[in-house]
Amino acid sequence: MNGAPPAIDVVDETFLAVPAGTVAAAFADRAAWRRYWPDLLLEVYTDRGDEGLRWTVKGALTGTMEVWLEPKLDGTLLHYFLRATPPGQPTPKDLRREYDKRARAAKAIAFGLKEVLEDGREPGIPPQ
User: Fold this and answer.
1) Could you write out the DSSP letters of every residue in 14-44?
2) SUPFAM superfamilies of this UniProt entry (predicted)?
3) Which of 12, 24, 60, 77 could pair covalently with 39 via S-S, beta carbons 3.0-4.6 A apart?
4) Residue 106 and residue 78: Cα distance in Å, rounded?
């Protein structure tokens, strides 16, 4: 980035009724990164273990991304942050479209993990 603030700043939170270590394992799988973010090249700059990962982002965007896993009640609050800029000189309309695309993708990843990792478990109900 050129010192200017990021053009896209996506922030998302989703509760998953599983331990942080379970969610961390899903993000530790480098093969999953390609499925979650197929047009981004990620390089870990901070591995926080069960608290998540921080990446530098290149490819379709340039910037940083973070998954912070916060133990909460009987599960984990998945915090997602993407601060990045597309290449070139995008118009405000292009930036809004890119923001919407990335925000929807973040929620789809979170809900996909929720469905698989919770395996039908409701918050407050002990795991089987």
Assistant:
1) EEESS-HHHHHHHHH-HHHHHHH-TTEEEEE
2) Bet v1-like (SSF55961)
3) 60
4) 11
Cα dihedral 44, 102, 52, 111 sign: negative
Convert the pLDDT of each residue in 85-94 to its tens digit. 999 888 899 9
The pTM (predicted TM-score) of the whole model is: 0.89
Q: Please tell me the total count of domains within the chain.
A: 1
Read off the pLDDT of residues 62-79 as tens digits, 9 standing for 90 and up: 999 999 999 998 899 999
CATH number of 69's domain: 3.30.530.20
For residue 96, the one-letter residue type is R
Q: And the tokens for 118? A: 């919770």
Asked if residue 77 belongs to a domain, the reply is: yes
In a domain, 112, yes or no: yes
